Amino acid sequence: MAKRRRGDTEIGDGGGVIKDKSRQAPSRVSRPAQPEDFSSNIFPSPHPRFSASSRVRPSKSLGQNFLINEGVVTKIIEALAPESDETIIEIGPGKGALTAQLLEKAGRVVAVEFDRNLIPLLQATFAARENLKLLAEDALAVDFCNVIQPATQARVVANLPYNIATAVLRRLIAQRSCLCELVLMLQREVVERITAAPGSKERGYLSVFVEAYCDTEKLFDVAPGSFRPVPKVWSSVVRLTPKPALDPELDEELLWQLVSAGFAQKRKTILNNLRSASGKLLEIIKRHGGASIILCRAEIDVQRRAETISLEEWLRLARTME
Hints:
The chain contains twelve helices and twelve strands. It is of the alpha/beta class. The protein has two domains: 8-242, Vaccinia Virus protein VP39 (Rossmann fold), CATH 3.40.50.150; 252-319, rRNA adenine dimethylase, C-terminal domain (Helicase, Ruva Protein, domain 3, Orthogonal Bundle), CATH 1.10.8.100. An eight-stranded mixed sheet has the order 3-7-6-5-8-9-12-10, with helices on both faces. It has a two-stranded antiparallel ribbon with strand order 1-2. Helix 1 packs parallel to helix 2 and helix 8 crosses helix 12 (311-319). It is elongated and about 65 Å long.
C-alpha cells in the first residue's frame, strides 16, 4: 500500500483516500515526538510589529492562504464569542490575524502551528501575552484533550488549509469528548458537502459522517480576496457542535463500511453498490441473506441511491446486520 502524505485526506464520497493535487504537502516532514511548547521561549521583540513578518511568505506546499480581511476576522470572533474563563484552541494561527483578538477575549489560547517558519513571528508578536500556549506541531498528530490541560473542555477555531481540512476535521471529531464546539473556515465546496441534507446531490460519505457526530450550521461565505495569496475558490465558515454519543451497542465500524460501500458509485442504486461490496462487509451481507434482504428488513427501497438515505436509515440498516 502506498504511504499517505500529510496532504492526503481520509474522507471522501466513497470513504477512501482522496488526494488533492492542487496543494499537495511535502512527502517527507520531520515531526517532533511530542508537541514543542514555545510559550516559555517567547521573547520581547525590539520591533513592535516584528519587521521580519514581511519576509514570512505563505508556503504553497502547505496550502497556506493567510487571512487579511479584518472584517472577516471580526465576524469569526463574533461567531465564536470567546469568554474570559475558557480555553480556545486555534489551529494554524499563521501570522496571528485571529490570535490577536482571541487573546484579548479568551481566558487562554492554545495555538497549534505546523510551519516552524512562523513560530518566531508569533513569539515576537505576542511576547507580552501570558495567556498564550504556542505549540509547533501538526494538528493531525496533536492530542487536543491533553494539550488543553488543566482545562477539560475547549472550543476550536481554525482556518484550515484545503489539502488537509477533512483529515483535521475527522481528528477533531474523534476527540470530541473534550471539544464542545468547532468554528472552522473550509473550502465552500467542503462545507456544502458537510451540510448537505438527504436528497441533495452534494450529499456523500462526509455528510453522513459529520451528521452522525455533530450538529452543523453554515455561518457565512468568505471571498477569495480575503486571503493572500488569493485562492481560486471561495471559503465558508461553519459551526459544528458535537452531539451525544451514538448508541454504545452500535457497531460503528460496520456502519461506516456500509456508508462507504453505499456511496462507492453515486450513480448506482444502494442495492447495486452493496452487492459490489468486498471483504468483511460482503461476508456480513451474505450471512444476513444478501443486499436485497437487509435493505427490505431496514425498510429501505432497493432502487434508492445513497444520497437520498437519511442518517436514521443508515443506522437502522447497520442494526439489521448486527
